[in-house]
C-alpha cells in the first residue's frame, strides 16, 4: 500500500484494524473506505495515483472533471475482497497525474442508504504538486467571467496544486484584497471566498503567486448578476378564444439581460385542481439577452377553464407578470353592433376614415363589406378591409352612403349583417377663388352697375354672407391710401346703408355634376366707393372667404394719359397722367430721347407732385413756353402694386411751328332766289388754328354759341355760315357775304374777303390741314381681357344659363370717356 506510506504507518494499521472488526462482527454496514487517509493528500505531478476503495456494497467513483476525461491514463478495476470475498473493492489508477487532476476523489455506494445516519461516501482531496503549474487553471490572456450578485458569496476559483502555495488576490489596477478570515477567506481547495460581495469586487481580479522566483497570474472578471427582466409576454393575443374540448396552449416568453435568471409560474382558474401541465425551457441565448419559455397546456378545455391566466416572472426582487383571458365557447356565434350611432359623419379630405362595427364572433367569420349594396372592392381602390373595419382612404364626397358588413361562419351556418350610414361633410369651396390667377384686381368703372358672384359647394349646404371693408383714405400729405383685408368687415344686406348701393343679393342652387352648387350674386347698383367685398361661405365643418377688391376707377383701365391740346411753339405743353390709386404707385413723367440708338429715360416729374383724389392720382406735367425742342415721346410710368410691373404709356408730342392763316378757297358771287338757302364755305389753314369770323356787309355776324347749325363748328378752320333768307332781309343781305379770317397768334394776318360761291379746295390740299395734328387719345391697350379668362370654365360648371356676369369695364360704361378731341363733325350745308 504505497499510499499508506505517506499517511503514516500507524494510521494505516489503525484503520486496518477497524476494518477487520467491522466486517467480523457483520452487525453494521460501514461506509466505504479509501486507501489514502485524511481529508487531503499531496503527490507529485508525473507520478501515478493509486486509490483503492473498499466497501460493504457496490460503489462508484466521483472524480474531478479533468480526470474523467482521461480515458488513456485512468483505469478502475473492481474485485471482490475481504474475508470470504464478501467485500467490494475497486482500484483507481491514474498514470502520470497532471496538476489539473487536483480535486476531490470520492467513492460512494450505489444503493440508497436505509438509514440517513449511515455513511455511504468517502472523499479525499488530492493535490498534484507541480511547481511549474501552481494554479490548476491559468487564465492569462482572457479572464474567466464570474457572475456575482452584490451581498452574496462569490468565489474566485484560483485553485492551487499545492496547499503551500501562497496566493494574493489583486484587483485591477492597484488594489490588493487581503483575506481577513471573515469576509474574505483563502481556501487552497476552492480559491478566495468573498462572503458578501460588494461593488468593490466588481472588475478585473487576479490571483498571483511566486514560485521559484517566477510570478504566476490568473485573471478573473467579476460580472454582476442582474435581475433585469426585459420583457414578458404571452404570444397568443388576448383574449384567447376556443371551442369547448379543444387544447389550450399558452406560451409565456421572457427576455432578460444576459446575467439574469428567472423563475416563471402561472396562476389560472384551474390552478387548485392542477388542470394544466407546464413545461419550462431556456430558449436560444443571444449575444445580449436570455430567453425563457413557460408553456401551459390544458387538454379538453371546459367552461370552468375560462378566465384570467397570468404568467409571473421573478428574478430576485424584480417581478413581472403578463396575463391573458381565455374564453371558452360552446358553439360558433356572431354578434354585431354599431359602435356609436347608426349614422356616422366624416369630412372630405381626411387622409383616412375607419368605419368599424362592434363584432363578437367565434370562430373568426368571413367579412364582406358592401357600399349601397355592392362590394366595396368593386367601388373603389380606396377601400381597405381591416378586420371588422373598413378603411376609407382620402375621404371624398362620393363616399357618403350606406355601408353593410356581412359576416359569415359558413361551416357552422351562422350569418349576420349590419348597415350604417356615412355622411361625408365637405368644407365650403368657392370656385372663383380656385380659378382666379390674376394677381392684380379688376377695376370697376365709376358709376357702373356691377355683378359679383361666388359659386359655392359644401356639405351640408353652406350659408353665404357678404361683407364689405371700405378702403382707407388718408388725408395726410405724402400719403398712400390703402385697402386691407385685416379690417373688421361690415356685414351687407340689400336694404343696408353700408358702402355702395346694393341692388340685390340673390342665391340660386343647381345640381351640377351631381353636386348641389350655390351661386350667390351681389349686384352693386352704383359703383362709387372703393373697398373689398367678401363672400363668406360656412357650414359646420369650415368657412371659406373670397375677397374681391372692388376698386373704382374714373379713368379707363386705371391708367390714362391726356394731352389737352397739341401746343404750338410758345404755348404751354400740358400733359396729365391719371392712375388708379389702389392699383398703381410711383407715378413719374419721363421724356424718352434716342441718343446713339439708345433710348434714354429722363425723369421729369415725380410722385410727390401728384395729387390724390377720390379714385386716382394725377400727375400733371407742364412745359411752359414750349419750343420745337420740347417735341418728343413723353411717357407716364407707374408701378402696379400687385404685379410689381412698371407700366409705361407714351404720348408723342410734336410742337408745331407757327404758320399764318391762309385761305384755301375764296368766296365767289352768287345769285339766289328769295326764300332759298345758300351755303358759304370758308376754308383756311394756319398754326395755331385760325379763328374765323363772318361778316356781312362789313358787319360781324353774331353767332349763337352752342348751335352748331348756326355757328361755327369744328374744325374751326373750316367754317360755314348758313342762313335762310326772308323777303324782309334780302336787302339787308346785299349782294355779298363777307368771310373774314383773323389769325389768333399772328396779329399781322391779313383780313380777307371772300366773295362768290364756295369752291372745293385745290386737289392735294387737305381740308383742314391742322387736323393732321389733332390727335385722338385712345385708352391704353388692354393689358388683359376684361372678361376673366376663366369664364368659360365657370360657364361649364353652370351650363348655358350662367349666373356669372362678367364685370366688364367696357367702353360704353365710361361716360367721361367720349373721344376727348372730336374729329370733324362733317360738312353741313349753309343753305338759303
Ligand atoms: C490538463 O493539463 C494538460 C497539460 O498540462 C492539458 O494537456 C490538458 O488538456 C488539461 N486538461 C484539462 C481537462 O484541462
Ligand atoms: C512540491 O514539489 C516541490 C518540488 O517538486 C517540492 O519542493 C515541494 O516541497 C513540494 N510541496 C509539497 C507540499 O509537497
Ligand atoms: C453585506 O454587506 C452589506 C454592505 O456592505 C451589508 O449591508 C449587509 O448586511 C452584508 N450582508 C451580510 C450577510 O453580511
Ligand atoms: C508545507 O507547509 C507545511 C505547514 O505550513 C509545512 O509543515 C511543510 O513543511 C511545508 N512543505 C513544504 C514542502 O514547503
Ligand atoms: C413558445 O414560443 C417560442 C417563441 O415564440 C417558440 O420558440 C416555442 O416553440 C413556443 N413553444 C410552444 C410550446 O409553442
Ligand atoms: C392584466 O394585464 C393588463 C396589462 O398588462 C393589466 O392592465 C391588468 O391589470 C392585468 N389584470 C390582472 C387581473 O392582473
Ligand atoms: C341581412 O340580414 C337579414 C336578416 O337579419 C336578411 O334578411 C338579409 O337578407 C341580410 N342581408 C344580406 C345582404 O345578406
Ligand atoms: C396717414 O398716413 C400717415 C403717413 O403715412 C400715417 O402716419 C397716418 O397714421 C395715416 N393715417 C391714417 C388714418 O391711416
Ligand atoms: C340642394 O340644395 C337645396 C337647398 O339646400 C336642397 O333643397 C336640395 O334638396 C338639395 N339637393 C340635393 C340633391 O342635395
Ligand atoms: C441705329 O440702329 C439702326 C437700326 O437698328 C441701324 O441701322 C443704325 O446703323 C444704328 N445707328 C447707330 C449709330 O448705331
Ligand atoms: C419763350 O421762349 C423764347 C425762346 O426760347 C423767348 O424768346 C421768349 O421770351 C419766351 N417767352 C416767354 C413769355 O417766356
TrEMBL record:
Compositional bias annotation for Basic and acidic residues: 711-730
Signal peptide span: 1-26
Ig-like domain residues: 32-125, 231-327, 428-549, 556-654, 661-698
Keywords, comma-separated and alphabetical: Signal
Pfam families listed in its UniProt record: I-set, Ig_3, Ig_VEGFR-1-like_5th, VEGFR-1-like_Ig-like, VEGFR1-3_N_Ig-like
InterPro entries: Cell_Adh-Cytoskel_Orgn (IPR050958), Ig-like_dom (IPR007110), Ig-like_dom_sf (IPR036179), Ig-like_fold (IPR013783), Ig_I-set (IPR013098), Ig_sub (IPR003599), Ig_sub2 (IPR003598), VEGFR1-3_5th (IPR055229)
Gene3D superfamilies on file: Immunoglobulins
Matching PROSITE patterns: IG_LIKE
Database matches in SMART domains: IG (SM00409), IGc2 (SM00408)
Compositional bias ranges of the Polar residues kind: 821-832
PANTHER family from the UniProt entry: CONTACTIN 5, MAM DOMAIN CONTAINING GLYCOSYLPHOSPHATIDYLINOSITOL ANCHOR 1
Protein name, entry field: Ig-like domain-containing protein
Source species of the chain: Felis catus
Amino acid at each position: 500500500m504505497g499510499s499508506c506510506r505517506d499517511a503514516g504507518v500507524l494510521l494505516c494499521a489503525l484503520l486496518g484494524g477497524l476494518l477487520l472488526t467491522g466486517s467480523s462482527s457483520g452487525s453494521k454496514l460501514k461506509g466505504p473506505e479509501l486507501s489514502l487517509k485524511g481529508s487531503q493528500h499531496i503527490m507529485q505531478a508525473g507520478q501515478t495515483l493509486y486509490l483503492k476503495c473498499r466497501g460493504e456494497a457496490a460503489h462508484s467513483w466521483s472524480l474531478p472533471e479533468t480526470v474523467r476525461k482521461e480515458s488513456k491514463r485512468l483505469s478502475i478495476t473492481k474485485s471482490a475482497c475481504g474475508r470470504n470475498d464478501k467485500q467490494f473493492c475497486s482500484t483507481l489508477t491514474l498514470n502520470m497525474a497532471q496538476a489539473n487532476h487536483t480535486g476531490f476523489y470520492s467513492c460512494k455506494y450505489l444503493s440508497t442508504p436505509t438509514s440517513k445516519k449511515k455513511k455511504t461516501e468517502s472523499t479525499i482531496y488530492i493535490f498534484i504538486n507541480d511547481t511549474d503549474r501552481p494554479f490548476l487553471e491559468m487564465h492569462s490572456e482572457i479572464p474567466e467571467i464570474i457572475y456575482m450578485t452584490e451581498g452574496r458569496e462569490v468565489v474566485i476559483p484560483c485553485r492551487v496544486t499545492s496547499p503551500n502555495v501562497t496566493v494574493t488576490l489583486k484587483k485591477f489596477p492597484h488594489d490588493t484584497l487581503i483575506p481577513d478570515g471573515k469576509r474574505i477567506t483563502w481556501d487552497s481547495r476552492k480559491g478566495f471566498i468573498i462572503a458578501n460581495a460588494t461593488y468593490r469586487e466588481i472588475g478585473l481580479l487576479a490571483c498571483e503567486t511566486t514560485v521559484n522566483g517566477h510570478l504566476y497570474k490568473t485573471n478573473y472578471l467579476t460580472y454582476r448578476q442582474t435581475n433585469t427582466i426585459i420583457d414578458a409576454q404571452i404570444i397568443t393575443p388576448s383574449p384567447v378564444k376556443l371551442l369547448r374540448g379543444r387544447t389550450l396552449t399558452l406560451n409565456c416568453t421572457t427576455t432578460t439581460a444576459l446575467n439574469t435568471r428567472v423563475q416563471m409560474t402561472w396562476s389560472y382558474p384551474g390552478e387548485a385542481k392542477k388542470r394544466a401541465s407546464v413545461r419550462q425551457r431556456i430558449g436560444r441565448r443571444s449575444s445580449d439577452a436570455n430567453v425563457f419559455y413557460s408553456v401551459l397546456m390544458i387538454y379538453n378545455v371546459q367552461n370552468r377553464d375560462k378566465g384570467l391566466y397570468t404568467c409571473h416572472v421573478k428574478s430576485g426582487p424584480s417581478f413581472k407578470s403578463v396575463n391573458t383571458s381565455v374564453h371558452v365557447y360552446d358553439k360558433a356565434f356572431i354578434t354585431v353592433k354599431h359602435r356609436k350611432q347608426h349614422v356616422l359623419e366624416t369630412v372630405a379630405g381626411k387622409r383616412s376614415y375607419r368605419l368599424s362595427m362592434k363584432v363578437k364572433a367565434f370562430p373568426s367569420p368571413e367579412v364582406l363589406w358592401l357600399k349601397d349594396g355592392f362590394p366595396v372592392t368593386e367601388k373603389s381602390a380606396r377601400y381597405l378591409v381591416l378586420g371588422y373595419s373598413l378603411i376609407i382612404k382620402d375621404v371624398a364626397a362620393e363616399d357618403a352612403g350606406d355601408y353593410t358588413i356581412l359576416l359569415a361562419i359558413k361551416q357552422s351556418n351562422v350569418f349576420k349583417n349590419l348597415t350604417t350610414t356615412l355622411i361625408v361633410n365637405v368644407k365650403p369651396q368657392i370656385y372663383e377663388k380656385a380659378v382666379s390667377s390674376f394677381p392684380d384686381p379688376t377695376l370697376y368703372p365709376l358709376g357702373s352697375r356691377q355683378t359679383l358672384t361666388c359659386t359655392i359647394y359644401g356639405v351640408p349646404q353652406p350659408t353665404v354672407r357678404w361683407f364689405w371693408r371700405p378702403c382707407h383714405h388718408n388725408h395726410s400729405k405724402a400719403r398712400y391710401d390703402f385697402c386691407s383685408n385685416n379690417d373688421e368687415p361690415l356685414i351687407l344686406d340689400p336694404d343696408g346703408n353700408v358702402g355702395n348701393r346694393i341692388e340685390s343679393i340673390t342665391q340660386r342652387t343647381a345640381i351640377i355634376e351631381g353636386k348641389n352648387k350655390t351661386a350667390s350674386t351681389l349686384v352693386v347698383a352704383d359703383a362709387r366707393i372703393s373697398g373689398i367685398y367678401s363672400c363668406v361661405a360656412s357650414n359646420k365643418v369650415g368657412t371659406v372667404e373670397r375677397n374681391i377688391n372692388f376698386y373704382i376707377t374714373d379713368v379707363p383701365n386705371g391708367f390714362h394719359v391726356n394731352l389737352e391740346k397739341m401746343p404750338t411753339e410758345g404755348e404751354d405743353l400740358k400733359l396729365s397722367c391719371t392712375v388708379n390709386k389702389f392699383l398703381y404707385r410711383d407715378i413719374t413723367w419721363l421724356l424718352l430721347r434716342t441718343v446713339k440708338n439708345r433710348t434714354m429715360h429722363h425723369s421729369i416729374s415725380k410722385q410727390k407732385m401728384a395729387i390724390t383724389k377720390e379714385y386716382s392720382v394725377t400727375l400733371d406735367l407742364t412745359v411752359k413756353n414750349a419750343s420745337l425742342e420740347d417735341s418728343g415721346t413723353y411717357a407716364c410710368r407707374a408701378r402696379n402694386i400687385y404685379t410689381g410691373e412698371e407700366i409705361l404709356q407714351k404720348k408723342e408730342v410734336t410742337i408745331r411751328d407757327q404758320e399764318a392763316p391762309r385761305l384755301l378757297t375764296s368766296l365767289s358771287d352768287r345769285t339766289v332766289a328769295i326764300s332759298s338757302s345758300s351755303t358759304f364755305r370758308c376754308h383756311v389753314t394756319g398754326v395755331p388754328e385760325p379763328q374765323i369770323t363772318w361778316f356781312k356787309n362789313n358787319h360781324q355776324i353774331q353767332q349763337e354759341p352752342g348751335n352748331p347749325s348756326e355757328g361755327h363748328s369744328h374744325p374751326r378752320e373750316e367754317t360755314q355760315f348758313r342762313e335762310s333768307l326772308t323777303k324782309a332781309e334780302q336787302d339787308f343781305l346785299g349782294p355779298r357775304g363777307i368771310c373774314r379770317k383773323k389769325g389768333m397768334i399772328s396779329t399781322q394776318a391779313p383780313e380777307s374777303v371772300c366773295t362768290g360761291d364756295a369752291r372745293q379746295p385745290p386737289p392735294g390740299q387737305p381740308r383742314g390741314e391742322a387736323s393732321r395734328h389733332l390727335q385722338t387719345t385712345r385708352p391704353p391697350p388692354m393689358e388683359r381681357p376684361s372678361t376673366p379668362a376663366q369664364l368659360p370654365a365657370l360657364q361649364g360648371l353652370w351650363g348655358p344659363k350662367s349666373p356669372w356676369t362678367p364685370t366688364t369695364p367696357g367702353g360704353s360704361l365710361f361716360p367721361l370717356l367720349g373721344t376727348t378731341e372730336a374729329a370733324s363733325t362733317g360738312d353741313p350745308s349753309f343753305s338759303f
